[in-house]
Structures are given as structure tokens and as C-alpha cells.
């Protein structure tokens, strides 16, 4: 699959159909989807996309669905699932998360849930960013999570 070009669409289509679900499928599909996304071929991307744990491609899939007229309400659960991760997500997710937040789907409870994920299973360095998303009355709890994650003995000194 050296020749990733739109002119080879039929070749990719045949290959992915023939090897669907095999170990050969994902590496080729991923390269093809990245190629299509890089050329803003949204409809083709959506045609070839299959659910994946790859956050970048999943975010692009949801963004392209919105661009093609899909309602954000119908995608909000999938967007929440991508956002609720204990580490930073790829920059390709930012426009999606912004639309989701502007539509009112990012709640303080979800922010706290992500802080807990970052503190317990992810990167504690994400916590200061998330803390800024909270109202003032909830920021001390988030800071406590961050300080405790950085230095567990901090909890002994907390009063």
C-alpha cells in the first residue's frame, strides 16, 4: 500500500473488503483514513471509518459527521466518552470538544470525573487545566487531587 492516492480508492476498497477483520485490515485502513482526513475528503473518510480506540481518528469521524449535518445531541455520548480520558487527547479533538462544550454537554460533574481519571489512571499534569474549567467553589477539591497525586504525603498536611 505504498501508493496512497485518491486514484487508488477502488484498490483500497477491494483490499479492505477482502481483509476486513484480519490483522492486515487496520494498518491499511488507518493509513487510508489519515490520507483522506489530510485531504479533507470527509464523505470518503466516513465511508471507510470503522470504530477504533484511536482517539485522533475517532474525533475526526465525529467532527466529519457534524460537518455532514449530524446533530450534536445524537453524538454527545460518543463525544463524552472520548473526552472522559485521564490524558490529553489529540489536537484534532479540540474543535469537537469545543462544539460539544458550547452545546452545553460538558458539565462540572464530567470535569470532576475527568480529574479523577487523570489523578488515578492518567496524567496528573492535566489536572491544572481541568481545574480552570470548574467554578471557584469546586477548584479546591481539584487542587487537592492534584497535590495529593504529585505528592501523596500532602494529604497529611492538608487541613
Task: Note down, in words, how this protein is organized.
By secondary structure, the protein is mainly alpha-helical. The chain contains 10 helices and no strands. α4 (55-67) packs antiparallel against α5, α5 crosses α6 (94-102) and α7 runs parallel beside α9. The chain is elongated, with a radius of gyration of 20 Å. 23% of the residues are buried. The model has no long low-confidence stretch (mean pLDDT 91).
Summarize, please.
By secondary structure, the protein is mainly alpha-helical.
How would you describe this structure in keywords?
elongated, 159 residues, mainly alpha
Q: What is the structural class?
A: mainly alpha
Number of helices: 10
Uncertain runs with pLDDT below 50, 5 residues or more?
none
What would you call the shape?
A: elongated
The end-to-end distance, rounded to whole angstroms, is 61 Å
N to C succession of SSEs:
HHHHHHHHHH
% residues in beta strands: under 5%
The tally of strands reads 0
How confident overall, as mean pLDDT?
Answer: 91
What's the gyration radius in Å?
A: 20 Å
**How would a textbook summarize the main sheet?**
none
What is the helix content?
55-70%
